[in-house]
């Protein structure tokens, strides 16, 4: 989604697939296309001349849509022209739509961007003080603060690191204040489990560090957004937070999204690393009672979202067996369903201009390429 590079001109919004069929009456006049598409109307964009022609269906539109195999574009779409080619993007997160306009009420003086604050708690344990200094030096919380700055929040959200006495992270209201807590013990565990060198799929130690940190932080931020925006959730709240994190990752363009997804998934490598030689998984029955999904489930859900969002960039997920053939056919639908929900419930709360700047910024530039693992607990 970078605004740099080639000059890309915006062509239009929704492409009526049925408009290219021979049984449609296509208007031949040179009148400009309407500001909105009326019922039974269509728009045809010529892929060679790039002209836009409005038209109107002959007969029942729903029958023609079914016959042509047209698919629902969900909340909307954008068509871009780059050189001599047209590209379509379904359900973009950063583009307002009628679904946005009819979404949650976001008026109010206290609802504004730049309402995320960060805190580095000073740990008491000597072995965590090194990590505390490292995080402050690399300004990782400040980067997350910048990434989340476009969200127009009704209350101030605090993201803090602290010593917990356990490996964990969570969202809660501390003294009624929305707070995401990241335990130093969890961050230390992440750094101690990084690959020593570039791993499978080109995952570097830096990718694994940034991806896992981004993933766990945006997962907890997802819980915060559901609370702050009063988002209704059908099903498992932890799955919804996983989806929130995955969706945010996938908005950063092909290369960066791939690094974030691959890095975030590194946390589950021990559960799926031997899938070819050990395809049978044994676990305690009580493990299925966890409020989080099983690690294997969370891994496959993230892989499916990535493949559904961009089956070309993430083609190796199916080619190398990371995404089973009985799951991959539904991944596009799963991603589109998530994109629609995000677009309707979350996007109205995002400052669109700031969001574009966020996606064009190189974050975590202070994070080094290699790490010295923090001291283990004594």
Explain what this protein looks like in three dimensions.
- This protein is of the alpha+beta class.
- The chain folds into 2 domains: 82 residues, no CATH class; 259 residues, no CATH class.
- Helices cover 36% and strands 14% of the residues.
- It is built from 13 helices and 10 strands.
- The protein has a 4-stranded mixed sheet with strand order 7-8-10-9. A 3-stranded antiparallel sheet has the order 1-5-6, with no helix packed on it. It has a 3-stranded antiparallel sheet with strand order 2-4-3, with no helix packed on it.
- The chain is globular.
Observed structural traits:
disordered N terminus, 378 residues, 13 helices, globular, 2 domains
Topology:
Elements: E1 9-12, E2 24-26, E3 41-45, E4 52-57, H1 61-68, E5 77-82, E6 85-90, H2 98-101, E7 116-120, H3 126-138, H4 140-147, E8 157-162, E9 169-174, E10 177-183, H5 184-192, H6 205-228, H7 237-249, H8 254-265, H9 269-272, H10 295-309, H11 316-319, H12 331-345, H13 352-359
Parallel strand pairs: 7-8, 8-10
Antiparallel strand pairs: 1-5, 2-4, 3-4, 5-6, 9-10
Helix pairs in contact: 6-7, 6-8, 7-10, 10-12
**Rounded Rg:** 23 Å
Number of strands: 10
- What structural class do helix, strand and pairing data support? alpha+beta
Tell me the quaternary state: single chain
3D shape: globular
Strand content: 5-15%
Mean pLDDT: 81
Q: Which bin fits the share of residues in helices? A: 25-40%
Low-confidence segments, ≥5 residues, pLDDT <50?
Answer: 1-30, 91-107
Q: Helical segment tally?
A: 13
Structurally, how many domains make up the residues? Answer: 2
Biggest sheet details: 4 strands, mixed
Order of helical and strand elements: EEEEHEEHEHHEEEHHHHHHHHH
Strand line-up in the sheet with most strands = 7-8-10-9
Distance between the termini: 46 Å
